[in-house]
Design brief:
There is one protein chain. By secondary structure, the protein is an all-beta fold. It has a single domain, classed as Neuraminidase. The chain is 0% helix and 50% strand. A four-stranded antiparallel β-sheet has the order 3-26-25-24, with no helix packed on it. A four-stranded antiparallel β-sheet has the order 4-5-6-7, with no helix packed on it. Strands 8-9-10-11 form a four-stranded antiparallel β-sheet, with no helix packed on it. It is globular and about 50 Å long. Bound molecules: 2-acetamido-2-deoxy-beta-D-glucopyranose (NAG) (3 copies). One 2-acetamido-2-deoxy-beta-D-glucopyranose (NAG) binds next to loops. One 2-acetamido-2-deoxy-beta-D-glucopyranose binds next to loops.
């Protein structure tokens, strides 16, 4: 591991050294030749050793397993895919502004989509963006307004919702209204802290979390991209076994590593793609970092500097392990409860 920045402070005879690492020992490879338009939302399914992710613009849910890439072709913008506890063929997906289930068996090409409920009905053009399940499998999912060809998104048209496991699809609970681009979510291992990103704020927000009631309180900022003058905005994120965050930097060409308690910048992992969209740890030992990237809006001339644009990447040798990606609890999604 080589060091790119060190701040040395002398505190009463003790040298406290803080270094931001650049992970020189890590190796990064493209997993397949496919170029994603808007690769997003990687989820490592440790029960089946499969990586699921979406291409929002191509309307696809991808499955990468045993060196093979398959996809389900849907007919709307797909913001996220999360497996349901206890099933290897049942997923929750965000399709336009509809929350839907996807039935897709591991070894089959056919699949079935069932719409369950729709949000943001008063906001045409909105769509689902990133989503995660908390430590008990409660689904949190956010929306955003329509992105125009120049990449602009109207301010405050999105909402972060929570699925109430008692009321299920009667109504998703709006928890944080007036967000712009609802993005990364993460919880610490015991579920007492929730981290959240509304990308244009450039901040990682931190909340106290009550895992029993699945509720947030005490909003503050853990980390602000402005603090260290970082380019780009935060997008998707994941949390490692040490409780530290790995944050994709959209328009920043890197993944940021931030201490989950102190909010201190621990390192920057350069990625040869400008629009880095999301990250998750995976692999049988949870020691690989999977990184999704976006080619939408990247000018051809930039591919010289960013040859990994649009690729799904696998990073080895970081020397860090991740945490299990949480599935959504089955209660609201058992196939017998589905409205056919
Ligand atoms: C998603 O929205 C697009 C554009 O409005 C529409 O053409 C498509 O049918 C929608 N798909 C679903 C599944 O609602
Ligand atoms: C939960 O974990 C955090 C560290 O992520 C720790 O500070 C806190 O004491 C833990 N709380 C409980 C109740 O175990
Ligand atoms: C679900 O909604 C009910 C009724 O409003 C409420 O009492 C309960 O606390 C909610 N549960 C969660 C996990 O938010």
């Amino acid at each position: 591991m080589s060091v790119i920045k060190c701040n040395v402070a002398f505190l009463s005879m003790v040298a406290a050294v803080s270094c931001a690492a650049n992970y020189g020992g890590a190796s990064i490879k493209a997993v397949t030749d496919d170029v994603m338009v808007a690769g997003e939302g990687p989820f490592w399914d440790s029960e089946n050793n499969a990586l699921y992710f979406v291409d929002i613009v191509k309307h696809r849910v991808y499955r990468y397993r045993r060196n093979r890439l398959d996809h389900a072709q849907l007919d709307g913008d797909v913001g996220f895919v999360i497996p349901v506890t206890g099933y290897r063929d049942l997923f929750v997906i965000g399709l336009n502004t509809t929350l839907a289930s996807l039935r897709w068996e591991l070894n089959k090409k056919t699949y079935q989509v069932t719409g369950l409920t729709t949000v943001d009905k008063d906001k045409p053009g909105n769509r689902w963006n990133d989503a995660k399940a908390d430590v008990n499998g409660n689904l949190w999912a956010g929306t955003m307004g329509f992105m125009d060809a120049a990449g602009n998104v109207p301010t405050g048209r999105g909402t972060l919702y929570k699925l109430n496991s008692t009321r299920c699809f009667e109504q998703l609970e709006p928890v944080i209204p007036a967000v712009t681009v609802s993005n990364g979510l993460a919880w610490n291992n015991n579920g007492t802290r929730m981290y959240y990103i509304d990308s244009p704020t450039k901040r990682i927000a931190l909340f106290d979390y009550d895992p029993v009631t699945a509720s947030i309180s005490n909003h503050r900022t853990l980390y602000d991209f402005e603090t260290d003058g970082l380019p780009g905005v935060p997008d998707g994120m994941t949390i490692d076994a040490n409780g530290d965050l790995w944050i994709a930097s959209y328009n920043g060409g890197q993944v940021i590593h931030v201490n989950g308690m102190s909010g201190k910048l621990l390192g920057k992992l350069k990625i040869a793609a400008e629009k880095v969209s999301s990250v998750t740890f995976g692999g049988p030992r949870l020691d690989k970092l999977y990184v999704t990237t976006i080619s939408l809006g990247v000018a051809r001339e930039k591919y010289k500097d960013y040859p990994m644009t649009g690729k799904l990447l696998e990073v080895s040798g970081l020397g860090v392990k991740g945490t299990l990606n949480r599935r959504v609890q089955a209660k609201c999604f058992r196939p017998s409860l589905r409205i056919e």
